[in-house]
Amino acid sequence: MSFKAINEFEGVYVDQIESNTDFRGTFLKFSPGKFGFPAIDSIALSMNPKIGTLRGMHYQIEPFAEEKIVTCVRGAIYDAIIDMRPDSKSFGEVGVLNLSQENGLQIYLPKGIAHGFQTLQPDTIVHYFLSSPFSAKHSYSIDPFEDNKINWPIETFHLAEKDKSGIPFMSAAKSFSDSLNKEV
Q1: Does the pLDDT at position 23 exceed 50?
Q2: Minimal CA–CA distance to 42: which of 60, 21, 18, 16?
Q3: Top-tier CATH class for 6-181
Q4: Is 128 among the residues known to form the active site?
Q5: Tens digit of pLDDT for each residue in 145-176?
Q6: Which of 19, 51, 98, 151 is the most exposed place for a label (fewest CB within 10 A)?
């Protein structure tokens, strides 16, 4: 696997969040429609109290494969993706990007992109728009340390069992590809 700039992944987009700050605080305006994203079906907030918390690399297979819009609304994360789409020019490629409250960036991920992040500040909050509901039966994790060669910036990891026992990338790519070929 090799690294690629985020903007080189077909269908992956990075955009600035609209924000307005005055004496009352900051108002963030999320506009999933500008990505052609369906109406808000679900929102997930992920709060990570410790620096170095690692989540991912997560994906779901059909019929629950997800499009995602990921934004860091408090703190900062090192965001990572892996392309599992069998016909993509960036298949097997890894991309990374820092998302933070300060830079106000958000990333749109189409179906077939595995996603994960590591917190860079305490009490970081990550906001997701998801196109499909969570389905434990269709949800998987790729080993975040395996052959994808992601250079996580913080060596002290706080990691869930699901992520510690993630599957190899090629197994993940096969499960995603197989789900595309099944009749739903």
Answers
A1: yes
A2: 60
A3: mainly beta
A4: yes
A5: 986 679 999 988 888 888 889 999 999 999 99
A6: 151
Task: Check 59, 128, 138, 140 and give the catalytic one.
Answer: 128
> Taking a C-beta distance cutoff of 8 angstroms, is the pair 179, 61 a contact?
yes
Catalytic residue list contains 13: no
What integer best gives the mean pLDDT of the chain? Answer: 83
Q: Identify which has the larger pLDDT, 146 or 35.
A: 146
Q: Say how many C-beta atoms besides its own lie within 10 A of residue 139's C-beta.
A: 14
- Amino acid found at 95: G
Round to whole Å and give the CA distance between 57 and 169.
10
Question: What does the alpha-carbon distance between residue 62 and residue 151 come to, in Å, rounded to a whole number?
Answer: 29
Query: How high is the pLDDT of residue 42?
Result: 47
pLDDT tens digits for range 76-93: 999 999 999 999 999 999
Residue 97, amino acid: L
Residue of 58, 115, 127, 138 marked catalytic: 58
